[in-house]
Amino acid sequence: MHNADSHIRLIGVRKSYGDHVVLEECDLNVRPGEFVVVVGRSGSGKSTLLNLIGGLDRPTDGVVELLGQSLAGLSEDELSRVRCRRLGFVFQFFNLIPTLTVAENVRLPMALNGAGRAEGVGRADTLLGELGLDGCGSRFPEELSGGEQQRVAIARALSHRPNIVLADEPTGNLDLETAEEVLALLEQTCRRHKATLIMATHSREVLGTADRVFTIRAAHIHEEPR
Ligand SMILES: Nc1ncnc2c1ncn2[C@@H]1O[C@H](COP(=O)(O)OP(=O)(O)O)[C@@H](O)[C@H]1O
Ligand SMILES: [Mg+2]
Is 2 part of any domain? Predict the structure, then answer.
């Protein structure tokens, strides 16, 4: 399953809420290891698209495939297993667990996948080091700046070696300078760990060095020439 030549595939995807059509005729093919950005104004459907890809929501019509497997036939339990094992998530508001230390936050996805404690500790240390957070493992999220919290969230998103990382406005709550730093780290860390990265952003200032950029406009997704 994880050797598929397409990591994310959308075929004729449509998503509507009642009469409100949010996405229509959406086709997308993201290859392993690519960094893809989806840009569009607020309300254009970026989160809706990422939620469909992440199996958090189902399309009204069309097919979503992850790692060559259609999500359509999966039960809710099977979907959450795919999410837990194959996907990493980075959100605008970091979503770290405040009562856990930084290292415990990073280890959580590994623990949920049954990794042993020793393995988890080692990998959390490695990732925190790569993200410039050496020595922060025993601190609590609220003791860190926004940029540092998002770097912890990136370490957490990659700890269980997911195939795909989904990042929804990961820089939306940071000042521009910090946003650029965090985006560069997100991209580098995903590339180093060979994870496919799909990121949504409303801001053209933080497109980074994406391999491909798509725009959502009037419910349709278009690839931009680069
Ligand atoms: N659960 C929902 N029920 C009804 N409408 C929704 C729901 N989720 C999103 N929408 C609508 O879909 C459109 C796209 O939303 P969203 O995907 O969050 O946009 P973006 O992330 O680009 O800002 C918006 O008009 C929003 O109001
Ligand atoms: Mg959104």
Answer: no
Ligand 1 atom showing the smallest separation from residue 40 Cα: 22
95 in any annotated domain = yes
Q: Summarize pLDDT for 130-149 with one digit per residue, the tens.
A: 999 999 999 999 999 999 99
In a domain, 1, yes or no: no
Tell me the mean pLDDT in the region 28-40.
97
Domain that includes residue 100, residue range: 8-223
Query: How far is residue 15's CA from residue 4's CA, in Å, rounded to a whole number?
Result: 25
Pocket test for ligand 1, best of 14, 41, 47 (most atoms within 8 A of CB): 47
Total structural domains in the chain?
Answer: 1
- CB burial class (10 A; 0-12, 13-18, 19+) of residue 11? middle
C-alpha 123 – ligand 2 centre gap (Å): 31
User: Stretch 183-191: mean pLDDT, rounded?
Assistant: 97
CA atoms within 13 A on the CB side of 17: 4
Q: For a pocket test of ligand 1, which of 14, 16, 19, 20 has the largest count of ligand atoms closer than 8 A to its C-beta? A: 20
Residue 201: give its domain's CATH number: 3.40.50.300
3 pLDDT tier (thresholds 50, 70, 90)? low
Expressed in angstroms and rounded, the spacing between residue 100 Cα and the centre of ligand 1 is 31
The closest alpha carbon to 151, from 187, 115, 109, belongs to 187
Q: For ligand 1, atom 8, which residue shows the shortest CA distance?
A: 48
